[in-house]
Amino acid sequence: MCKHEFVFSQGCGANICQGCGLHAHLSFEDGSITQELARCWCGWSYTGGNGRSELWELGEDIEDLMGDDSWLESDYEQSLESWYEQVNDI
Ligand SMILES: [Zn+2]
Ligand SMILES: [Zn+2]
């Protein structure tokens, strides 16, 4: 079992365990877990799936996140394109 060592992530807005990746909200008073998250926009999911697509399917309100995420999408597509180029060269 993981003892959970949480570090706050600005991108996720949650505390993330360095050992197992668990996302949680912690008590400001004693650091105890007040809420364990099931999935996150960074792609993490408690079940090991894709947290982002799970949130999409759940229809989460993402309006205030769209602006921040758009550059991530284009960055991902660019890296995918360069990967394809490398494959074609072989
Ligand atoms: Zn942990
Ligand atoms: Zn996250």
What does this structure look like?
The structure is a single chain. With 90 residues, the protein is α+β, with helices and mostly antiparallel strands. It has one domain. The protein has helices spanning 51-58, 63-89, and strands spanning 6-9, 14-17, 23-26, 33-36. The protein has a four-stranded antiparallel sheet, with no helix packed on it. A hairpin with a 5-residue loop joins strand 2 and strand 3 (23-26). The radius of gyration is 16 Å and the shape is globular. It starts with 5 loop residues before the first strand and ends with a helix. 8% of the residues are buried. The mean pLDDT is 80. One zinc ion binds at residues 2, 4, 17, 19-20, 22.
Q: Provide the gyration radius in Å.
A: 16 Å
Question: What proportion of the residues is helical, as a percent range?
Answer: 25-40%
Mean pLDDT: 80
Q: Number of helical runs?
A: 2
Question: What is the straight-line distance between the termini?
Answer: 43 Å
Largest sheet, strands/sense/barrel: 4 strands, antiparallel
Pick out the low-confidence regions: none
Q: Which descriptor suits the 3D outline?
A: globular
In this entry the ligands are: zinc ion
Count of β-strands: 4
| Number of domains as seen in the coordinates | 1
Question: Which strand order does the major sheet show?
Answer: 1-2-3-4
Structural class of the helices, strands and pairings?
Answer: alpha+beta
Strand content: 15-25%
